[in-house]
Design goal:
The longest helix is centred in the first third of the chain and has 21 residues. Helix content is 36%, strand content 20%. The protein folds into two domains: 76 residues; 228 residues, BirA Bifunctional Protein, domain 2 (2-Layer Sandwich). It has 335 residues and is an alpha+beta fold. The structure holds ligand 2U9. The site of ligand 2U9 has 20 residues, from α7, β6, β9 and β10.
Length: 335
Amino acid sequence: MLAELEKLREEAIAAIGAARGTEDIEALRIQYLGRKGRLRDLMALLPQLPPDEKPEAGKRANQVKQAIEAALAADGAAPAKPAPTRPAVDVTVPGTRPRVGTLHPLTQVYDRLVDIFARLGFETAAGPEIEDEYHNFDALNIPPDHPARDGFDTLYIGDDQLLRSHTSPVQVRVMETTPPPIRIIVPGKVFRPDTTDASHFPMFHQLEGLYVDEHVTFADLKAVLTMAMEELLGANTRTRFRPSFFPFTEPSTEVDVSCPFCGGDGCTVCGRSGWVEVLGAGMVDPKVFDHVGYDAEKYTGFAFGIGIDRFAMFSLGVNDIRLFYENDARFLKQF
Ligand code: 2U9
């Protein structure tokens, strides 16, 4: 019996060594270890052995089984899975279309504004969102006790560090390091201690512009802003310049455009007036030039500011600023 087992082991291992491919290996597994295989045949004889030979023979039969299993496994013949009866990929199933996103509506408006002013010769500048009081206020002719400071003055991080309340400090920084002429726009985030409602949010986006050179006049201001509005809102857009006040410009103006929804007839977007206020602007106050070391006798300039969120709201017909910041795909995918 022991000799028979040894012979079986040698024969099986030699056959496995010579096997080619998984089908051969599977056939050998059945031949040697299957329910009607050669090892079972030999083990069926165990009961007939004399009692003192049985334990040794049983043990040896197990060892042979393990040796054959190991040889089969080593040849990659782990119990084979049945071959798939159909292809794993069903090429007839209709495909799922990938969902393609779009740019956020604010980004779309922001990009259009930057593009239009770029074509009018304005370079884009950027600067810190955390500012010091000098650049956010004093250099812009807003002294510590000036009432214009109140509405901006509370988002402080340290004694002399605050979240910028407008992008104007960037223009100051550019003028500090660049001699005239300059023609820049500064788009970016600004922060104000406003209570949130349909038209206010404590963070929003501005795009401000600044053009300084010799002989820049209010006529240049009107020409550039009128052209920009026509580009953005359509060639039929009319503009209206009303007197206003800003500490950093003199004279100052607020700019209305004819309502892009009703063409000026009056609707819910323009509050039935036919006009929408979109911009503030003015000629740079000479005191600002004094702060940055520009010769205020030689140079003049105009500046303007647009609230990007507000502009996006009326140009896209959105009636609540909070919708821009809620990340609700049902809103965002409309644009
Ligand atoms: C420098 C000098 C002058 C920037 C200006 C405005 C008028 C203005 C508002 C529009 C809507 C802010 O977002 S908003 O609330 N801006 O009305 N901004 S003039 O004037 C400057 C800026 C920098 C050195």
